[in-house]
Amino acid sequence: MNSKPRLALAGIASLSLVIFSGCGVQGPSQSKLAPGQYEWNPERSPSGPTLVVVSIDDQMAYVYRNGVQVARSTVSTGKPGKETPTGVFTILQRKVEHESSIYKGAQMPYMQRLTWDGIAMHAGNLPGYPASGGCIRLPYEFSRKVYGVMGNGSTVVITKKRANPSRSSRPANILLASSAAGQENKAIPDPEGRTIWNPSKSPSGPFSVLLSYADRRAYVWRNGIQIGQAPLGIAPGSNPPEGVFVMLEGEDPRDSRFPGLKMHPWTTLSLDGGNSRGNAVNTLRSQLSLPEDFRKKVNKALTPGAILVATSESSNKNTRSSGPMNIMTPQAKP
User: How far is the CA of 257 from the CAs of 73, 85, 187, 188, 298, in angstroms?
Assistant: First the structure.
């Protein structure tokens, strides 16, 4: 088994994702599917970063490519006592033919691993209700198709309630500090503290950023290895949004406010409702700041498919599991 650590941000136990309003257009209307049924329409968005959202309550999985829903399917998640964990995960390992090491002899075709302790997406039986040992079972053909459009580092969000990602209203760059963004951020105090940037520790691979409002720090991973961290400035009295942000393909060549900096659209999921007023990307930019030199380095490294998770929870040695991966396991909110 590959023991190289990769980023997996395990969610709050009561995680329920809802859309940020004002960020974009909702997905297509959904009719009910029978157990084992799925829809696959890749022509809606031929390219771009892929995001899978699994709803435990709905027993459904939704596939988004470059912010557009291209597929959906019925699923079967963990049964009572062996519930599927909620949170934000990245694909750790993939096998077309896989036999479970926990349930000896159990075949798991098109396995895409989410945790090293046994949670994965794979083809399996779909009785119409939660019945697995914690994995996400998919129809065989749907599992094969999803396997073909994802890869190590692709993002999977598992939530209790259904969630529709929304797209930023116009291309933007989330990590704009006050010195670059001008008057909109003048009230944010300059962040103070140690800055670390060691990109040589992991020269390539999926790029992930965690903004912890509790720690007032930004943590940066590439291919699951932490390559940087820096203090995070937060505007006094503000309530920055909590959510999952995925950088999409495309840019706005008309935007000349920041020469040399590409403005990409983002797809957005709220972690707990957060600040749902207005454009979440703009709200995040207007209420947060990073040290200028660190911001420039991160912005230069970001590419479409990068994920950013913003949370009010802490990320430290007390909230991380030991072992061959990083995983944030905060306590459930009251």
Answer: 42, 42, 20, 20, 18
